Amino acid sequence: MGTVAAQDNNTIDLGAPAAERDIDRGLEHYFLESDAFRRVLRGETTVILGNRGAGKSAIFQIVARRSRANGARVIELAPEDYSYEMLQRTMQTEEQGSWAKQGAYAAAWKYTLLVLVMKELCKKQVRSKNASEAAIRKYVRDHHRQPGMGKLWALISYLKRLEGFKIGPYEAQVKTKELERLYKLEEIRHLVPHLQKALTDQQVVVVIDELDKGWDSSEDAQAFISGLFQACVALNGLSANLRMYISLRQELYENTPALYEDAQKHRDLIESVSWSEADLRSLIARRIRYSLPRLAEATDEKCWNALFAAGRGTRRDDAFRYIVDRTLHRPREMILFCTQCLHTAGERRSPLPLRMDTIALAEFEYSRGRTHDVAAEQRFQYPDVLSVFEAFRGQVHTFERRSLEYLCLEIITGEVTVGARARRWLADYDEDTLIDVLWKIGFLTAEVAAGTACTDGPLTFVGHHQAPQLDVRNVRRFAIHPMFRACLGTREVDADIPCRRHGG
User: Fold this and answer.
1) Most exposed residue of 155, 312, 387, 484, measured as fewest CB within 10 angstroms of its CB?
2) Could you give the CA distance from residue 332 to residue 373 in angstroms, rounded to a whole number?
3) 502 near 465, Cβ under 8 Å?
4) Is 416 helix (H, G, I), strand (E, B) or coil?
5) How far apart are CA 44 and CA 10, in angstroms?
């Protein structure tokens, strides 16, 4: 058995943590179909919300692949197709002229997406004698023959036209007339009935993913997102055979006021992605089954125990409990930690199932990577927050509120050194607001009492991902989330303090 286990250790592959790289490695075979995914696939919900690493891209990759398999034409817009920095360089600010950017972006997005759909329909090898398709083909040929231009060339072009009339030296009467034409998409308005007819026997799916990459919270970035949301909602009503899907990071959604306000009118179209602990176990089990065919019929628990040795029932020697407690319940984190365990085992020539000593050795690299990743996620809203994390280096895991407030005060006043960019945003914070920020980004966990819906014992520490509605102003005890501890070299709680989940 030991030899078999050792061979398994050399061949087991849990796939890539990023869906774009995993789609050709087996994602379609071990993808976990949730109710949320099925609603998206049916087109009942078209906007996906979730934290980075929560599986939004995986859902879109499978939706795109299955749509193509069913004969649909699929248009995918990825990070390389848009650049917030380019928009900021290209466009004038609202202060430089009286023009509302959100409305301009909504109109430009409608124009751009309609053009992309029409161009996709023109890719048929055989020219159709259908009058509607002929009209579309003629428009594309006459107006969009720019070879080598990116997918969003039309967006920038249309925005510049709007900007010209908003800010340019035109008489008021001319401005009003031309702007009305642009906002009403007069250039292509007559083609909409033709497009609807062309879509009666051809499905087109548009997938717009990873809008958070390069997000800088600028005026243009916010207008870009909220305008896109408006355009997609409007165009999804054009035809049953046209579907526009968008994924948004939860924080981005909550921190773009115009988007958040618009989205409240369309809650039925929005799908929030979240994962239970059972889902996360099943996620790894499916990947183990795919990698080890001899376990094809095994239960999730048996698959997990093939990878990690079963403990004696306590939290400290239960591999699943130990690993899942060091995540923010995101699939990517589970994959990264388990993969790091396999890598460490390979270096040590440790056979399967892996024991706690191997997991503990793997933890530092995982913790360091995730600590930097979380800081990078917040680089626009909370620049240099990594230096704030560093202020907790060597601290005890758990804090009474008064002790935590004192440390936060030292950080804010500069008694504890943090980066220059962090000092700028910290200048507007007090101890309570800094605690709230560290809670919301996952760095801190809060102790809650028995009877709270998110607990599984008499006393426990929970993260924001487990209890997002919790008001931490009334919490008396906090802990550094276990995911960050190995990286920051934090210390165990005192011996007389009981060990609690996320607390010791």
Assistant:
1) 312
2) 12
3) no
4) coil
5) 43
* Residues 6 or more apart whose Cβ sits within 8 Å of residue 76: 60, 64, 206, 207, 209
Beta pairing partners, 75: 206
The angle that helices 431-440 and 401-413 make with each other, rounded to 10 degrees, is 100
Q: Which residue has the tokens 């943090």?
A: 418
Cα gap 110→242, rounded to integer Å = 13
List pLDDT tens digits, range 308-322.
997 665 555 689 999
- The partner residues of 246 in beta bridges, in order of sequence, read 47, 208
In this structure, what token pair is assigned to residue 358? 């191997």
Length of the chain measured in residues: 504
Cβ neighbours, 10 Å, residue 196: 15
Q: What is the full DSSP assignment across 307-335?
A: HB----SSGGG-HHHHHHTTS-S-HHHHH
Q: Which amino acid is at 498?
A: P
CA 314 to chain centre: 33
Which of 206, 187, 65, 199 has its CA nearest to residue 121?
199
248: nearest Cα among 456, 454, 489, 50: 50
State the pLDDT at residue 400.
96
Name the phi and psi angles at 201, rounded to 5.
-125, 20
State the Cα–Cα distance between residues 132 and 489, nearest whole angstrom: 66
**Long-range contacts from 276-280, C-beta under 8 angstroms, 24+ separation:** 276/329, 277/324, 277/329, 279/32, 279/34, 280/324, 280/327, 280/329, 280/331, 280/334
Q: What is the pLDDT of residue 281?
A: 96
Look up the pTM and report it. 0.86
Q: Return d(Cα 116, Cα 134) in angstroms, integer.
A: 16
Tokens of 341: 């365990």
Q: Is there a contact between 501 and 457 (Cβ–Cβ < 8 Å)?
A: yes
User: For residues 206 and 244, is the Cβ–Cβ distance under 8 A?
Assistant: yes
What is the pLDDT averaged over residues 291-306? 94
pLDDT tens digits, 192-234: 999 999 999 899 999 998 776 666 777 777 888 888 889 999 9
